[in-house]
Amino acid sequence: MAYDEEVVKRVREIMRDTPGFSERKMFGGVGFMLHGNMAGGVNKDDLIVRVGPDGYEDALSQPHARFFDMTGRPMKGWVAVGPSGYESDQDLAGWVRRGTEFALSLPPK
């Protein structure tokens, strides 16, 4: 399993009406973009969220969140959230909102 299709559907439902939304298959998962900037994604059964440097420590302190590491080095400004951390629609929407807010704070690509 490269990524959880059901999680992708749930995130897509939340983000689909956001201006500049697109998604791309990448790194064995799916990335969610806003105006060309990645807001997050799904890899295996993890929700990947781009929170930026200012939101990083707070995001890591949340239940079921951990460092996001695909290369042997944690990616600062990104967190991986395990399934228990986004099981409820409310929790998923909160994580998606964090990624969306950060991506929309960046200039379009």
Mean pLDDT: 95
How much of the polypeptide forms β-strand, as a percent range? Answer: 25-35%
Structural class category: alpha+beta
**Strand arrangement, largest sheet?**
1-2-3-4-6-5
Low-confidence stretches: none
Main sheet record? 6 strands, antiparallel
Query: Which CATH architecture is right?
Result: Alpha-Beta Complex
Amino- and carboxy-terminal Cα gap = 31 Å
Residue share in helices?
25-40%
| Beta strand count | 6
Description of the structure:
The chain has 109 residues and is α+β, with helices and mostly antiparallel strands. It has a single domain, classed as Aspartate Aminotransferase, domain 1. It is built from three helices and six strands, in the order H-E-E-E-E-H-E-E-H. The protein has a six-stranded antiparallel sheet. Strand 3 and strand 4 form a beta hairpin. It is globular and about 30 Å long. The chain starts with a helix and ends in a 5-residue tail after the last helix.
Write the layout of secondary structure elements.
Blueprint: H1 5-15, E1 21-26, E2 29-34, E3 37-43, E4 46-50, H2 52-60, E5 65-67, E6 78-81, H3 89-104
Antiparallel strand pairs: 1-2, 2-3, 3-4, 4-6, 5-6
